[in-house]
Amino acid sequence: MAESTNNSITQWYGFYPSNPFWVVEKPELSQNLLALSDKMSQIIIRKDTSFGKLQVARDGMVLCNFRFQLSAQDILEYLNGVNILLASRASENFFKPFIDLQEVTLQDVVYHEYKGEQIAKFDIETVGELVKHRYLARFLSSFLNVKSASVDTTPGSFWHKLFAHSIVTDKRISSRTDRVMPESVFDLVASDLNSGAKDFTIVQLLSALNKSMEQYTQANYDMSLIYSWFVIEAYLFKLYEKAKPGENTEEMSSSDAIRRLKEFKAIPYQIGNDLHTIRIARNSIVHNKFDSKAQPEHAAMAIEAIKEFIKRDTGLNLSVNA
After folding, report:
1. Using one digit for the tens of pLDDT, what is the confidence trace for 3-32?
2. Considering only CA atoms, which of 109, 91, 107 is closest in space to residue 99?
3. Which of 16, 45, 229, 314 meets the CB 3.0–4.6 Å disulfide criterion with 196?
């Protein structure tokens, strides 16, 4: 996509991370409900990435603009990759989980068109009700059938008190009170997107891990393990091709790959044993769906194995835990 000019229209795809927060600082909201929309939708952070641009609104919406044409599926993969990087860097900053990992789906994505720095168009018709509800907090003032010029909003007046009450009692606002994400977190996310995750295949693996961890937190251990296996298998053959470049692996099973990688010392012996255990658990799901032997520890083991693979491959040390 071409670089924007002040009057050009640019396309952005936005999502809210699962837990609400303010960006950089909490805005002063008690004085003027009528200015709430501008305050919440104000873009506070702008970053360039290897894929395009990333910007973040005061109300926590993360928006991405791409330099090139992507399919809807690729856009979702990218947003999921951004989501897990943000959750990881936020956990490091706050020394505890700050964002619950959830898969970003089409129902979570709010499409925007910007003209310069102003929103020219947005579409919430196809998003889920929860996302729509959060987004509409930007327009609290429109639910009061009153024009600002026609009422007295000076401090202490009836309308001033009503506006202030509408803000402080709205859960979409009050739930953010003590939750503020500093810019330094987004600096690190942008750095990750420009270094360890600059290759789209890594973004896809991060996206699969994001989905796996959501399934794990919901106790869907079978699905978590299946998502994880996509990543593990990709890394197994990537490592094998690195250890034995040019060797034909088309007929090689994952079991053979694990065994031979251990023989080459391309993976630590214990990780090889863990991968074998994970493979058996995964096979029990695929081949005997109604009598799966997958346990929580298998899904957690798979997630930890992926984090280790990603760290060794890209230098990204993900601070998200099963």
Report:
1. 445 678 999 999 999 999 999 998 876 556
2. 91
3. 314
Q: Give me 215's structure tokens.
A: 């399934």
Q: Which domain holds residue 172?
A: 9-182
Q: Is 4 within the bounds of a domain?
A: no
Query: Which of the four pLDDT bands, split at 50, 70 and 90, describes residue 147?
Result: low
| Alpha-carbon distances, residue 185 vs 92, 98, 193, 257 (angstroms) | 9, 12, 13, 38
Tell me, what DSSP letter sits at residue 201? H
Cβ neighbours of residue 205 closer than 8 Å, sequence gap 6 or more: 231, 234, 235, 306, 310
Quote the Cα angle for 111-115-120, to 5°: 50
CB contact at 8 A, 158 and 56 = no
pTM of this structure: 0.88
Q: Do both 207 and 177 map to the same domain?
A: no
Taking a C-beta distance cutoff of 8 angstroms, is the pair 135, 127 a contact?
yes
